[in-house]
Amino acid sequence: MARLTDLFRRYLSPGRSITASLLILLIACSTVPLILYVQFRKADEDKKTIVLRAAQQQAALIMNGLRPLIDQFNPRSIGLVADAVKAMASDGLTIRLLLHAVEPEGEGVFLVAAAPEETQGAFEPVRQKLNQLGLLTQAPKTCDGSTPIEARIGTEAGSNELLFAIASTRTAAGCWSVLTSWTELSYLETSIGRPYWQSSEMRLAALVYGGLTALVIGLFLGAWLHLRRFQRLAYDLRAGRSSESFETLNRMPELAGVAREFDRLIGGLRSSSELIRHVAEENIHALKTPVATIGQLIVPLRQAVPESDARSRDALDGINRSLDKIDRIIAAGRRMDWMIADLLDPTRQRINVSDLISDAVVDYEDELELGGITLERAITPGVHVRGAERLFDAIVGNLIENAISFSPAEGRIRIAVRGTGATADIVIEDSGPGVPAEDLERIFEQNFSRRPDPPPCSSQKALSAPGMHHFGMGLWFVRRNTEAMGGTVRAENITSGGLRVIVSLPLDR
Amino acid sequence: MRVILVDDDDMFREALRNNLKDAGLDVLAFGDSRVALEHLKVDRSATLALLDWKMPVMSGIELLRKMRQSEIDVPVVFLTVLGEPFYEETALADGAVDFIDKSRTFTIIQKRIEMILARTRDGAGGLVGDAPESEPVTIGHLELNPTSCRAVWKGRQVDLTVAEFAVVEHLARNAGQDVRYRDLYNAVRGPGFAAGFGSEGYRANVRSFVKRIRQKFRDLDDRFECIENYPGFGYRWSGNGPPH
Fold first, then answer.
1. Above 0.85 for ipTM, yes or no?
2. Which of B17, B21, B22, B81 to substitute to test the interface with A, most A CBs within 10 Å?
3. Fewer CB near the terminus (10 Å): N or C of chain B?
């Protein structure tokens, strides 16, 4: 839960996290157009209402203008009516004068006159549309007043008409309707007869807005992807899989300074590491040569001292033992220096964990035998990780040493290695006293000790395995080295008694 | 048996030279590797060269390369304090026969030298203590040539020191049988030799040998598992590795 809260705080903190900013941007980019669309559509509705009302009035006026002629209508006056209709038409405006037959309802409508001129066949799609809208059945019923109509009808000529209004009146001949319509070109800017989002202004706005949004999101994503690439390179450098520099990887000029500084940092770490190795080597040379010389100088002394001179022989033995001890201390110091250098310089290699642990276990055979400790192994072969072998050796050595030192006489230690999902788990269980729950995390801290008494094996002289000469900071090394290799370590008490330490490292497949 | 000793540290060189002389060897010591090289070019009587690695002007490894360029084939043993595997691998790859830590006791250094000299004598057709053991051995993918101390695994040479070779040879000649720690240790140091200061010190020594040997085989073959351990007893060479 705490981890979730931490992740939430880290990734969703606006102003700090790109993820949070990108999320806010995405929300803004999807809500702002909706708000604007609603506002614009309202304005368009108002505009449409005015236009339709004007069209309705226009249809009513035309009907009034034609009224004297249709009152007197007879088959011979049809030419006069047609002329009058033509006189009233203008560019973009189509006028149709219709006469509704009584029967059959809705079907019997005749095009008496039209401007521009139109055949009955060309009128047919218009008639069908009017019929669909129910106007041909409705208009003859009341046959009074005018109504605006929102519709679009494609005609044979290919133009797209917007039907605006129908005005009807009744005479002795029947019910007459004047149908006015405008071509699409005349009212291109209106959304009459189609959803508002299909209007050209909305399309243009959507295009501009979409372009801008894509640009801004692209910028964010670009920066985010660059950071991801930096992260991947940093990981690869640490894993020893890449020798690339941040500067060559970077494509954003704004990040050039950051990349340069990262490269300098890596360079600094590498030279520090080289320096440590170099100094370690020089120190070894300087310290071990006199040790080796003393070792050689003692040889003639030993030959010269008679067997009967026990005191001198003991003194020579003491010198030899001391030399051996100094040699071990120098070796331990060297391991330490190289380990520090390995921590600084992320040089990593593929490590066969199964083999290394199998080998390491053998190193502790004498200690296990002396303590009467039974060792159980469950090592899955072929489990690999990527890391520095020295760091890993120190992890394993300290884990085994820790388990041995807390195991009672005739106790039991179990070592398991297995690949679990994406991690290699190294599990070591002892049959010691375990750790109080509140200290389970603290045992990995530097200088934290839970040893009230010397460990059971410390009285034995023959502790010769590498782990028994570690530097007294046991589990702290384990955690530090594990984390340096990109892994985690945790400890838990075993219900039946003892401690279980689990080191999880990323698997290298 | 003339031994050439090259080391720039005057005190160590003198002390070791005297000890080797006391052990009955004819030792010629040099503090400058260039002078040693010039001597080796004209005097081919040396049977072994002990070289320090880190020396001013010309390092031990450079001297070895120049010796080989001048067709001086005397067996070379590095006697150095540089313990990183890299140095040992480079030395063996360039033709050295052994790599010994300078701070080891004189007795150990002496044993290793004697072992190399004995093999050199065998190779030259001189003293052959146990004739069948100088014959090449082939066990599964392993080929051993005791005369040149060279081991080949699946057609590729494994760079083993003389002592490591002795361990592998002893295990391989007893393939399929458990070999005691003590027997393996005797194969390297000779019977009755005391190791370290603990009564069981030789075990740690053998384990450290086997660990290095395994690593060298695994560097060539990730699936190498022919050396099995029997806790508390020793090791066994298993032709096909343990069953999975």
1. no
2. B81
3. C
